[in-house]
Q: What sequence folds into this?
């Protein structure tokens, strides 16, 4: 999966993260698990926090602010949500 | 990579703003004449961009107290309360604040920013949770970075979302501490504090309310939103500032917690900075006295709020959702915001320009603040000038067309 295209159907969380990030895509580059959220996409820090809130709502989790600095890539974000979802 | 390369985007966007005219983030007041007037770039200007809600910055009793204190006790303390000692004025002011709020203890900080930094960073330990409103002030967010606990945000002013977040934490060890503000500084809206207090009680959490913009403004005796909605008993810690209604600088926290004073030797933003100078302590004490003894200041403020808010609403502007001393005129985009702000300054009206990311929901705002000392004539002039500018930049025409269409 690493470096490959994200197939939404094979992972609900990853699919939702990718869909939520779609509007912030820069140029034609596809969003992959390795996409760096702040470097490779048109997202400022506030937009990132808004996006997190959207995901929290969708998956009924709270993403602690303390974890945010460690989330760099799309894959890491999906993994964080997945982990919180599984409790 | 050069040292400041990471700021290039910031430098570019600031340059773009400055290219249009005066720099909204670098205004130079040639001379401040009164709480409501200044000379800016040689022009007499009406100040509608302060936080001077009660107009006490030129109050004679505050000035006299400050002058006397500076002559008696000198210009500064040159050190912190912990290392270099407290002056009589510091403890007297703390006693006065505790009395004003009807609380057991009070603690004074050198700025409001440091009060939030100190209290909110230390209130939750490693196993505890801070649950903050998503639109919290930067000082609260910065405090969260220094806090050892887990930080969770809830949707702005959404007590149901707060409830949901606390529900998710049910069964976890650790204290839960909710942090909200009385009045939010950008849009001027108030926290739904009665609902938040109910959620707090339901989950056995603690509640911190930052009354920075609501002290002196809300409540029968000016204690803030908690007093106004009758939930003071549910608020465990009130934080606030001396730099808005009290017209000086400094911050405070009051509480009934029996071990509150331990924070004096646990809060680094209290311990490792110089304490407030005697003149400021004296003017703040006099200003607090004015809040208590002169309720007419609050009456005048609210009458002015009605004039400005209703006046701008009638002219067709979109404003913040709630009436209060912060009246936020919403504009469609940052470019129009910059243009409007500059036209206003050229016409002798100073407001604050607030742009994303400092604003909620990506809004571009002309943030106007009302002062008890504004005259009816000044406010009518402000409404006329803002309306003219609204027509010039096309925002009022557009609103009218949209409404008609």
A:
């Amino acid at each position: 999966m690493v470096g490959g295209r994200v197939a939404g159907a094979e992972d609900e969380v990853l699919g939702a993260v990718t869909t939520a990030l779609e509007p912030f895509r820069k140029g034609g580059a596809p969003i992959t698990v390795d996409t760096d959220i702040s470097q490779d996409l048109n997202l400022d820090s506030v937009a990132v926090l808004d996006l997190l809130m959207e995901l929290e709502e969708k998956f009924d989790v709270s993403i602690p602010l303390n974890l945010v600095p460690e989330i760099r890539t799309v894959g890491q974000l999906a993994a964080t949500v997945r982990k919180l979802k599984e409790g | 990579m050069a040292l400041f390369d990471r700021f290039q985007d910031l430098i570019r966007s600031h340059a773009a703003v400055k290219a249009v005219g005066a720099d909204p983030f670098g205004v130079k007041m040639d001379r401040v004449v009164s709480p409501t007037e200044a000379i800016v770039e040689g022009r007499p200007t009406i100040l509608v961009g302060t936080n001077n809600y009660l107009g006490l910055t030129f109050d004679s009793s505050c000035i006299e107290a400050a002058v006397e204190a500076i002559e008696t006790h000198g210009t500064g303390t040159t050190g912190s309360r912990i290392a270099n000692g407290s002056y009589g004025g510091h403890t007297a002011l703390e006693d006065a604040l505790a009395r004003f709020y009807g609380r057991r203890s009070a603690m004074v900080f050198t700025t409001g920013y440091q009060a939030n930094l100190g209290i909110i960073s230390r209130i939750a330990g490693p196993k505890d949770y801070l649950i903050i409103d998503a639109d919290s002030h930067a000082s609260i967010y910065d405090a969260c970075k220094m806090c050892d606990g887990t930080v969770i945000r809830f949707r702005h002013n959404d007590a149901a979302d707060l409830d949901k977040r606390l529900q998710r934490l049910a069964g976890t060890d650790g204290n839960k501490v909710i942090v909200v503000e009385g009045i939010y500084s950008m849009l001027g809206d108030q926290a739904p504090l009665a609902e938040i207090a109910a959620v707090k009680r339901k989950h056995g959490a603690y509640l911190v309310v930052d009354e920075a913009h609501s002290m002196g403004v809300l409540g029968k005796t000016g204690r803030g939103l908690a007093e106004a909605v009758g939930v003071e008993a549910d608020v465990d810690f009130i934080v606030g500032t001396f730099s808005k209604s009290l017209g000086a600088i400094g911050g405070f926290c009051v509480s009934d917690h029996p071990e509150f004073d331990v924070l004096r030797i646990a809060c680094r933003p209290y311990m490792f900075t110089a304490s407030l100078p005697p003149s400021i302590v004296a003017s703040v004490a006099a200003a607090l006295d004015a809040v208590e003894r002169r309720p007419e200041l609050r009456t005048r403020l609210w009458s002015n709020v009605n004039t400005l808010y209703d006046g701008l609403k009638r002219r067709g502007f979109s404003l913040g959702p709630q009436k209060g001393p912060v009246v936020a005129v919403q504009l469609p985009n940052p470019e129009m915001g910059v243009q409007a702000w500059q036209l206003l300054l050229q016409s002798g009206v100073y407001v604050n320009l607030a742009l994303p990311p400092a604003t909620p929901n990506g809004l571009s705002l002309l943030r106007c603040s009302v002062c008890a000392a504004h005259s009816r004539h000044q406010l009518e002039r402000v409404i006329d000038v803002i309306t003219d500018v609204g027509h010039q930049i096309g925002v009022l025409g557009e609103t009218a067309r949209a409404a008609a269409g």
